């Protein structure tokens, strides 16, 4: 006996050829679906309905042939950030073709270009060597634990969700499993590092009586702009690039992946500008450590442990700290250079000793231990830069290779470097050639820092007026004094 509800629907098939029969079938089916939907809405709880729908959707959308392998890449792994997720997030937009129909676009601060991303509505196909893989952005729904945690507040589906903060599914033919794991995924990670280095905003970190504090590195200097002898500039760039390429060599010979530089020369010769240029060339953050704020070896080690990989650690004006002065030449320096230090200040002669000694500052041995001792393995791909105005005052233990590998003498301004400086400050044309040659000849007789020459180049927007003022200054300088530093410049 047929149920009366479906009687009309079943009898329609006996005369299926007529138009009226097709209409009756459609009307009966529509009525059935309306009744079914009403029953589902009334009888099945809202949470359970969505749970069933999500499971059905997942089953049909994730179906794949038996020879396909899927790798789930979630944003977090055991509560920690999954770097592969963010690598894929940056890598995949580079693989979006012109035929891709569903995109997200945006413009955020500190990015010059419009950003592209895919929104998960289409699969992204990528080819690597001889394999083809597919990427899909998926929503990591929390509805799977509805029955395990029924008290969890349900988020309504109409509420907007950030589909970028979920996960990816990477699928490919099973026969390429080894190549994907050993070559393709490392390729994504290395590409991500390259993209990140190109897009990131460099930071400068400073520490004074507390934790590191960071801000954007806005110093405008670069290797294209600094007034440096071209041959010396090339040597520095070649050394930096060679350092970056030699990770495996450092591991092979058992050396920490670090390199030390000593920048020495009189004030105003561009030591700070060179540091900024190195940071921009390497895309490394800068940690500017004021040694006068370090009161113990343990504090020094703590500060160094908190620096990141791929960074530059700067120790400025090390000759100003008695802890690193040359012990073999102590008789050449004043007593103040080697007076005992208490609480960060120098003890006055004939001052009575305090009842309780204050903590000592860091020691030379502590600094050396960080540079190439057991603590030197704390972090890798680091550049250590020391600056000083008086290289001869620094203890030789700091200066040897392995600690300060390359000594860079930033001297006074000479001909080739001046041409770069003048080109940066002024739009030099051919008619200014005689003035340039005259200045180059004078610079061969008088030592002037780039800072002093730059000040004269800034005094007029007319190149001829600025150059003539510099010529007059150099001509009036007492040649017998040889060196024109800031003190002499102020008196002229």
From TrEMBL:
Keywords: ATP-binding, Hydrolase, Magnesium, Nucleotide-binding. GO terms for biological process: response to stress. InterPro entries: AAA+_ATPase, AAA_N_dom, At3g28540-like_C, ATPase_AAA_core, ATPase_AAA_CS, Mitochondrial_chaperone_BCS1, P-loop_NTPase. It catalyses: ATP + H2O = ADP + phosphate + H(+). Belongs to the AAA ATPase family. BCS1 subfamily. GO terms for molecular function: ATP binding; ATP hydrolysis activity. Its cofactor is Mg(2+). Residues 257-414 form the AAA+ ATPase domain. This is AAA+ ATPase domain-containing protein.
């Amino acid at each position: 006996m047929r149920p009366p509800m479906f009687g009309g629907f079943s009898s329609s098939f006996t005369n299926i050829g007529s138009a009226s029969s097709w209409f009756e079938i459609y009307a009966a089916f529509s009525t059935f679906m309306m009744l079914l939907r009403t029953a589902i809405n009334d009888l099945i709880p809202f949470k359970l309905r969505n749970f069933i729908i999500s499971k059905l959707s997942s089953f049909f959308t994730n179906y794949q042939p038996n020879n396909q392998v899927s790798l789930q890449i979630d944003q977090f792994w055991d509560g920690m950030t999954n770097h592969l997720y963010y690598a894929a997030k940056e890598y995949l937009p580079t693989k979006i073709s012109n035929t891709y129909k569903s995109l997200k676009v945006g413009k955020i601060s500190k990015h010059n270009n419009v950003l592209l991303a895919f929104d998960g509505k289409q699969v992204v196909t990528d080819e690597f060597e001889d394999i083809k893989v597919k990427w899909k952005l998926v929503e990591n729904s929390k509805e799977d634990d509805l029955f395990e945690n029924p008290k969890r507040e349900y988020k309504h589906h109409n509420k907007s969700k950030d589909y970028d903060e979920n996960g990816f599914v990477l699928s490919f033919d099973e026969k390429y499993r080894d190549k994907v794991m050993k070559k393709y995924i490392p390729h994504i990670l290395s590409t991500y590092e390259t993209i990140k280095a190109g897009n990131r905003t460099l930071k400068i970190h400073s520490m004074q009586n507390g934790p590191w504090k960071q801000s954007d590195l806005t110093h405008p200097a670069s290797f294209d702009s600094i007034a440096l002898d071209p041959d010396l500039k090339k040597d520095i760039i070649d050394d930096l690039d060679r350092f970056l390429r030699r990770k495996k060599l450092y591991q092979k010979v058992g050396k920490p992946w670090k390199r030390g530089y000593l920048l020495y020369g009189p004030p105003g010769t561009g030591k700070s500008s060179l540091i900024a240029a190195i940071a921009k060339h390497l895309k490394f953050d800068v940690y500017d450590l004021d040694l006068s704020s370090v009161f113990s070896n343990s504090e020094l080690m703590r500060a160094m442990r908190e620096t990141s990989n791929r960074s530059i650690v700067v120790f400025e004006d090390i000759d100003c700290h008695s802890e690193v002065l040359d012990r073999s030449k102590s008789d050449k320096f004043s007593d103040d250079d080697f007076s005992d230090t208490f609480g960060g200040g120098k003890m006055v002669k004939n001052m009575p000793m305090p009842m309780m000694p204050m903590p000592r500052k860091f020691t030379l041995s502590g600094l050396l231990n960080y540079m190439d001792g057991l603590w030197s393995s704390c972090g890798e791909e680091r550049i250590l830069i020391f600056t000083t105005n008086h290289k001869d005052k620094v203890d030789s233990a700091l200066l040897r290779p392995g600690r300060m590998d390359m000594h860079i003498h930033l001297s006074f301004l000479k001909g080739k470097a001046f041409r770069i400086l003048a080109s940066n400050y002024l739009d030099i044309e051919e008619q200014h050639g005689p003035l340039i040659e005259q200045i180059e000849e004078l610079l061969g007789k008088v030592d002037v820092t780039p800072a002093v020459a730059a000040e004269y180049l800034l005094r007029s927007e007319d190149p001829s007026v600025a150059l003539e003022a510099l010529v007059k200054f150099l001509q009036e300088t007492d040649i017998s004094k040889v060196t024109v530093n800031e003190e002499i410049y102020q008196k002229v």
